[in-house]
Protein backbone atom coordinates (compact mmCIF):
# COMPACT_ATOMS: atom_id res chain seq x y z
CA UNK A 1 0.00 0.00 0.00
CA UNK A 2 1.35 3.40 -0.87
CA UNK A 3 1.41 6.27 1.59
CA UNK A 4 -1.04 8.10 -0.66
CA UNK A 5 -3.66 5.37 -0.20
CA UNK A 6 -2.91 4.56 3.44
CA UNK A 7 -5.76 5.63 5.75
CA UNK A 8 -3.36 5.89 8.70
CA UNK A 9 -0.92 8.28 6.99
CA UNK A 10 -3.56 10.98 6.63
CA UNK A 11 -5.13 10.89 10.08
CA UNK A 12 -6.16 14.24 11.54
CA UNK A 13 -4.11 15.12 14.62
CA UNK A 14 -7.16 14.95 16.89
CA UNK A 15 -7.54 11.21 16.15
CA UNK A 16 -4.07 10.40 17.47
CA UNK A 17 -4.07 9.53 21.18
CA UNK A 18 -0.38 8.68 21.57
CA UNK A 19 2.53 9.20 19.23
CA UNK A 20 6.11 7.96 19.03
CA UNK A 21 8.65 8.15 16.22
CA UNK A 22 7.95 4.53 15.30
CA UNK A 23 4.22 4.10 16.07
CA UNK A 24 0.92 5.72 16.99
CA UNK A 25 -2.26 4.94 18.88
CA UNK A 26 -5.80 5.74 17.78
CA UNK A 27 -9.28 4.63 18.71
CA UNK A 28 -10.85 2.50 16.03
CA UNK A 29 -13.37 4.49 13.97
CA UNK A 30 -15.57 1.38 13.80
CA UNK A 31 -15.02 -0.27 17.19
CA UNK A 32 -16.07 -3.86 17.79
CA UNK A 33 -16.17 -3.13 21.53
CA UNK A 34 -15.97 -0.02 23.74
CA UNK A 35 -12.46 1.38 23.78
CA UNK A 36 -11.27 -0.66 20.78
CA UNK A 37 -7.85 0.82 20.13
CA UNK A 38 -5.30 0.44 17.33
CA UNK A 39 -1.54 0.58 17.83
CA UNK A 40 0.03 1.07 14.42
CA UNK A 41 3.65 1.16 13.27
CA UNK A 42 4.40 4.29 11.27
CA UNK A 43 6.48 2.40 8.73
CA UNK A 44 4.46 0.39 6.24
CA UNK A 45 4.98 -3.32 6.88
CA UNK A 46 3.02 -6.37 5.85
CA UNK A 47 3.23 -8.13 9.19
CA UNK A 48 4.15 -7.58 12.83
CA UNK A 49 7.08 -9.92 12.18
CA UNK A 50 8.63 -7.44 9.74
CA UNK A 51 9.12 -4.69 12.33
CA UNK A 52 12.53 -4.04 13.81
CA UNK A 53 13.52 -3.98 17.48
CA UNK A 54 13.01 -0.22 17.91
CA UNK A 55 9.54 -0.45 16.37
CA UNK A 56 8.64 -3.43 18.55
CA UNK A 57 9.84 -1.60 21.68
CA UNK A 58 7.82 1.49 20.73
CA UNK A 59 4.70 -0.57 20.02
CA UNK A 60 4.98 -2.35 23.37
CA UNK A 61 5.53 0.92 25.27
CA UNK A 62 2.50 2.45 23.57
CA UNK A 63 0.48 -0.69 24.28
CA UNK A 64 1.25 -0.41 27.99
CA UNK A 65 0.34 3.30 28.10
CA UNK A 66 -2.85 2.72 26.08
CA UNK A 67 -3.86 -0.03 28.52
CA UNK A 68 -3.28 2.26 31.52
CA UNK A 69 -5.49 4.90 29.92
CA UNK A 70 -8.20 2.41 28.96
CA UNK A 71 -8.21 0.90 32.45
CA UNK A 72 -8.63 4.38 33.92
CA UNK A 73 -11.41 5.27 31.48
CA UNK A 74 -13.38 2.03 31.69
CA UNK A 75 -12.87 0.95 35.32
List the helices and strands and how they pair.
Blueprint: E1 16-19, E2 23-27, E3 37-41, H1 53-74
Antiparallel strand pairs: 1-2, 2-3
Structural summary, described in words:
The protein has one helix at 53-74, and strands spanning 16-19, 23-27, 37-41. The protein is α+β, with helices and mostly antiparallel strands. Strands 1-2-3 form a three-stranded antiparallel beta sheet, with helices on one face. A hairpin with a 3-residue loop joins β1 and β2 (23-27).
Indicate the overall shape.
globular
Helix/strand order, N-terminal first: EEEH
> What integer is the average pLDDT?
93
Residue ranges: pLDDT <50 for 5 or more in a row?
none
Determine the strand fraction and express it as a percent band. Answer: 15-25%
Helicity range = 25-40%
Neighbour order of strands in the largest sheet: 1-2-3
The total strand number stands at: 3
Structural class: alpha+beta
Radius of gyration: 13 Å
Total count of helical runs of at least 4 residues: 1
State the end-to-end distance.
38 Å
Main beta-sheet annotation: 3 strands, antiparallel
Amino acid sequence: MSKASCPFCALPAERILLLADEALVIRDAFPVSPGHTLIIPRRHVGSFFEIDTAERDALMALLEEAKRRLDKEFN
